[in-house]
Amino acid sequence: MTFKSTPKVELHTHLEGCAPPAFIKGLAAEKKIDISKIFTADGGYAFRNFDHFLQVYEAACTTLQSPDDFRRLVSAVLDETAAHGVVYMETFVSPDFCGGGDLDAWHEYLAAMKEAADEAEAKLGITLRGIVTGIRHFGPDACKPAARCAAETMGEFIVGYGMAGGEMVGRPADYAYSFDMAREAGLPLTCHAGEWGGASMVAETLTHLKVSRIGHGIGAASDPALVEKLAEEEIVLEVCPGSNVNLEAVSGWAAHPIVKLRDAGVPVTVSTDDPPFFHTTMTEEYDMLHKTFGWAEDDFAAINATALKAAFCDDTTREKIA
Ligand code: HPA
Ligand code: ZN
User: In this protein, which residues make up the domain named Adenosine deaminase (predicted)?
Assistant: First the structure.
């Protein structure tokens, strides 16, 4: 049974994390950068755990040096994603990897990404939107220029602000300034929490950063009161089961709390996070949810409706996709 052709809405991907290894290898060869140690013998990305994953990720990013590299990246990623039935995708983009937070540079990188996205939309019928992300382990001060880039470029392509990176660095309140700046500019917000930090990290993220979506959020499942709050306040979880299994945030597919959260009324959605890193695709996620929990077309239709409703795009775009 495969759900490859089922139309899918995906809210949680990291743009550079979607780069096929062969694409990064090609850029490395062009630029004569030796990053051979980040690849396994069979051509995948090699990492031992989440912290090492972040290091390997950043090493891969050293090959992405110009707006044109990001234009090619977006094309390669959307070719692959569209092949799995994804019709709408949101992706985290980081000024830190696109000119280091400089606003003029950021405009150029964005224009290149948007050019590739528009081309893919016309060719493949997939719509891409970007969520600017601060990188948590770079620290609260480094997230401020990212938030400023988000505030200055919100519009048709940039539709939100969020934070990724090492979840255990600092506490949510340390990052409030950037989230306040983005919120005051009118951007909807999401933040990685509860992938590693447990229920307290999710609760603090809601209190201090006032986000409407949480990246992962699975740690919340251990706290019934928090689960109830997520359900009541309709806080949407961007759940990435294959990523959680690969990084051992859960012990295996059968132990994943997505069903428990959904059955408690929490709005859950399904995404891939960084598909080639975690040996997954949206097809694989759906196929494994079917195999493990018996999810079928009705279940997938429900999570896609939840995802589309929670998407940060404007209503005209939402209606076009529905
Ligand atoms: N989690 C957190 N930070 C990240 C990730 C991720 O999967 N990918 C890139 N930055
Ligand atoms: Zn993520």
Answer: 7-322
